[in-house]
Every structure is written in structure tokens, then in C-alpha cells.
Write a structure and sequence with these properties.
The chain has 10 helices and 14 strands. By secondary structure, the chain is of the alpha+beta class. A hairpin with a 5-residue loop joins strand 1 (55-58) and strand 2.
Length: 295
């Protein structure tokens, strides 16, 4: 892996440090403030880091920069979590926690009655209790999800013992193999009343918005329609109320990328595109159903 210039390394360090502590996309201003440098310098560095595959950018009001796995591998700062939020997020009793997994070791693999895992973590274990349910993952490198129950904990060693109820290895499968192709779209010049009619008749809550050439330009949901009707804007067009920040993914992407995008953006579905045109939709439920059906 190439060695980055000192400024690039400092910016990358600050980005990852802020991202791990906040679990949110990081603004260039936050990095500039952390390092005491000009925000313009940070933006220029970000352009280069993105081109080299060290960061991803997220648009919209809650947008910013997110480190990639390549960035995590490059930094490897001693005494940190190894930025395990991207490696293995942890949910306790179905709620996301501030505990991050740094290693998993399977135990009792020949025991026919129970399978256990020794889980090494970073974070405060004081609020974690024996008997709590736990979900780990998906991990980046091994693409594994583990669900189970905590049976032992060692706060000093930062270790948990988990009885595994479910272990899923995410296969390398393209999004287009899992997505639903039954996607309904609406043109940006259509009246909002048409969107309302589709929502009612098809029992759906969101519609991708396309231009005259079929390229996706936005997303309209029942919330925007309700807002327009509340304001008495009954003759409005879809383009006047649609969201322009559309959660999308290319049909040739891996389903792991879809899962990661949903996790980072806290959403349950993505519009699947090909050449800028919507060709399907993939939901968290679609992925779970697919994984449950894998032999």
C-alpha cells in the first residue's frame, strides 16, 4: 500500500477518529477544526483521498465523508478499536451499542449441542449483562453475521462469550440477483395527485422519480404528498416536492455493499440503477429472505 503525504495521513487520521466516535459522516469543517488547518485544504485532500479509494462521500443535509476499509487498514493506529464500527457493529437487545468487535474466535466447533464464540471488543461493558441478546456484524473481511446470547463477560480483558443461535456468512452475490424488479416510477412533471393515486392503489410509500429519458432524478414519498395537501398545494407537480437525495446502488454491486449502505444511512431500502436508470429496488427484507434461503 502506498505511503501518503503527512498532510493526507493527518486528515485521514482525523476523519476516522471523528467517524468512529460519532458514527456519522464527517464534515470537512470538523476535520479542519480538529487539525487547526484551512477547510479548503481539507477539501482538496479529500478529492485526492476519494480518487485513491480511501474515503466515500455522502450527499445531502447529513452528508460528509466516510472512511473505507482501505483507510482503516492504512491507519491501524495502536490503542484504538481498529475502527471496528466498519468491521463489526454490535447490537445489544436489538439496539446499536457503542461496543465494537476487534476479534471473533469460534469455540466448541465439534460440540453437537452448542456453539460458542469468544468475542474481543472495545468499549464499556458495564451495561452489558449476561443473558442479553447480541448481534455482531456484518464483518467486512469475513462477511459474517452472528446472533446469540451473552453467557460470560470479562470487563478487564474486554471479552464476551456468546452462545451462537445463528451464524450467517454473506455470499458474494450481485444486487440484481436479489432485488425486486417490480419497480414503479413516476415522471417528475406528473401531478402529485397521480403519486397519491399510485400510493393508494399499490399500497406503497415511495416512488422513484424519473425524467423524460427514464433517468432517476428524485424520490417522492407519502410524507411529501401529505405535506403538499396540508399546505393546500393540490395542483403541485412531483418535481416541486420530491427529494433529490436518492439512496441508490448499482445493480452490479455486491449485496454486502447494499447492507453497509443501509446501515450507514439508517434506511431500509435502496433504488437499484443501471446507467442512471432505475431497474429495481432492494430492501433489508429482500436480503434477509435471500440469506435465509441459502443452502
Amino acid at each position: 500500500m502506498e505511503r501518503l503525504p503527512a498532510t493526507y495521513t493527518a486528515v485521514l487520521n482525523a476523519l476516522v477518529d471523528i467517524y468512529v466516535s460519532t458514527k456519522k459522516a464527517v464534515k470537512s469543517k470538523d476535520i479542519a477544526d480538529r487539525l487547526g488547518i484551512n477547510e479548503g485544504t481539507v477539501r482538496n485532500v479529500m478529492v485526492a483521498l476519494k480518487a485513491m479509494g480511501y474515503i466515500e462521500s455522502k450527499t445531502g443535509p447529513y452528508g460528509g465523508y466516510i472512511p473505507t476499509q482501505k483507510a482503516l487498514e492504512y491507519i491501524k493506529m495502536p490503542g484504538t478499536s481498529m475502527f471496528a464500527f466498519d468491521v463489526a457493529p454490535v447490537f445489544i437487545n436489538k439496539l446499536q451499542s457503542n461496543i465494537y468487535v476487534t476479534g471473533i474466535e469460534l469455540l466448541d466447533i465439534i460440540n453437537p449441542f452448542t456453539n460458542r464464540a469468544l468475542v474481543r471488543v472495545l468499549g464499556d461493558l458495564r451495561n452489558v449483562k449476561i443473558g442479553d441478546s447480541i448481534r455482531i456484524g456484518p464483518t467486512v473481511n469475513s462477511r459474517v453475521i452472528i446472533e446469540g446470547v451473552i453467557t460470560e463477560k470479562n470487563e478487564g480483558l474486554k471479552e464476551l462469550v456468546v452462545v451462537i443461535n445463528k451464524l450467517i456468512a454473506i455470499p458474494k452475490v450481485k444486487v440484481e440477483e436479489v432485488m425486486s424488479r417490480n419497480i414503479i416510477t413516476i415522471e417528475q412533471d406528473a401531478p402529485l395527485t397521480e403519486a397519491a393515486r399510485i400510493f393508494s392503489s399499490k399500497k406503497i410509500r415511495a416512488l422513484p422519480v424519473v425524467d423524460g429519458e427514464g433517468r432517476i432524478v428524485g424520490l417522492i414519498t407519502t410524507s411529501e404528498v401529505a405535506k403538499a395537501f396540508y399546505e393546500g398545494d393540490l395542483k403541485a407537480r412531483v418535481s416541486e416536492y420530491m427529494r433529490r437525495d436518492v439512496p441508490m446502488i448499482d445493480k452490479d454491486s455486491d449485496i454486502y455493499d447494499a447492507m453497509r449502505s443501509m446501515l450507514i444511512n439508517k434506511i431500509g431500502r435502496l433504488i437499484v440503477t443501471s446507467g442512471g436508470k432505475p431497474v429495481g429496488i432492494i430492501t433489508r427484507t429482500d436480503i434477509l429472505h435471500y440469506l435465509a434461503s441459502v443452502d
